[in-house]
Amino acid sequence: MILYNITVIVDHDIEVEFKEWAHRIFLPELAKSEIFKSQSLLKVLDSPNEGETYSLQMIASDADDIKSFQESHLSLLHDKTQDVWANKIYLFESRMQYITVL
Length: 102
Fold this sequence. Notes:
The chain is α+β, with helices and mostly antiparallel strands. The chain has helices at residues 15-33, 63-72, 74-83; strands at 2-10, 38-43, 52-60, 89-97. The chain has one domain (2-97): Alpha-Beta Plaits, CATH 3.30.70.100. It starts with a strand and ends in a 5-residue tail after the last strand. The relative contact order is 0.30.
């Protein structure tokens, strides 16, 4: 399994809007696609960044699931970031492979 993470650093003035959009639109659309085993929105409590930091986390069976997401759903996030929240949001992706789960 792979934890696919998108870290999102959000300006304070769009924090509520981003959080509501991710919670009410982005994650439900992703859940309907059934690409991932689960998807979550987390708030980073001890972030050293200015603004607020959130983490969109998805659990994938394999790299093909992530590729499918990137081809079908990632543009929804990028379009919103560029068209509506330009210069107010920064994001980056990371992948982590599970080694041990107890």
